[in-house]
Amino acid sequence: LIKYNFIKRFNKNFMLETDRLILKPFVQENLSTVIEMLQDKDFMAFSPYGDLTTEAAKTRFFEILEHYKNYNFGKMAIVLKDTHQIIGYCGFENCEVDGKKEAELGFRIIKSERNKGYIVEASLKLIEDMKNRNFKHVIAFSEKDNLPAHNLLAKLGFIKTNSSHYLNMEVCFFKKDL
Q1: Rounded to whole angstroms, how far apart are CA atoms 70 and 152?
Q2: Which of 11, 14, 119, 146 is buried most deeply by CB count within 10 Å?
Q3: CA nearest to 71, candidates 19, 27, 7, 132
């Protein structure tokens, strides 16, 4: 019971590290950086909402903070170790699919840092963390035409389960047993 209570408490100092990255929860001080990213059309490619207005970006930022506070996991800042620059986010959020609550992997990275393996590196670390939290499986979904994301999910060991609609988009759903 003591361990459970410790895990459930919000811990904004929690960090995961890889060879090149620090993954950490967003904090209030990251607001302007995240708003800038969420307003960038390249960063928000394949989003059902596209690039966001300032108000919508603020709302999304606070949703990310609130999710982490409530569940002690969520979308985390991807920070380059060598520059300390936030280059995107990666992590899991709860979503409802077919009436079931699922932990869904999501990620975005700024255009200049794509194709360097950062999302694979971050995702593998976060998948390991979800396994350590005793999740039995995780899901992901991507717009049906987003083949780079489909290939990335396959590289991470996700299996395509079906195609459907979600948030007014045609998407492919993927699942990974942990």
Answers
A1: 29
A2: 119
A3: 7
Q: DSSP letters along the chain, please?
A: -HHHHHHHS--TT--EE-SSEEEEE--GGGHHHHHHHHT-TTTTTT-SS-SPPHHHHHHHHHHHHHHHHHHS--EEEEEETTT--EEEEEEEEEEEETTEEEEEEEEEE-GGGTTSSHHHHHHHHHHHHHHHTT-SEEEEEEETT-HHHHHHHHHTT-EEEEEEEETTEEEEEEEEE-
Convert the pLDDT of each residue in 90-139 to its tens digit: 999 999 888 899 999 999 999 999 999 999 999 999 999 999 999 999 99
Structural tokens at position 6: 């410790």
Q: What is the pTM of this model?
A: 0.90
100-109 vs 137-143, strand pairing mode:
parallel
- Listed as own residue / partner, the contacts of 10-13 with beta carbons closer than 8 Å and 24 or more positions apart are 10/68, 10/69, 10/72, 11/72, 12/68
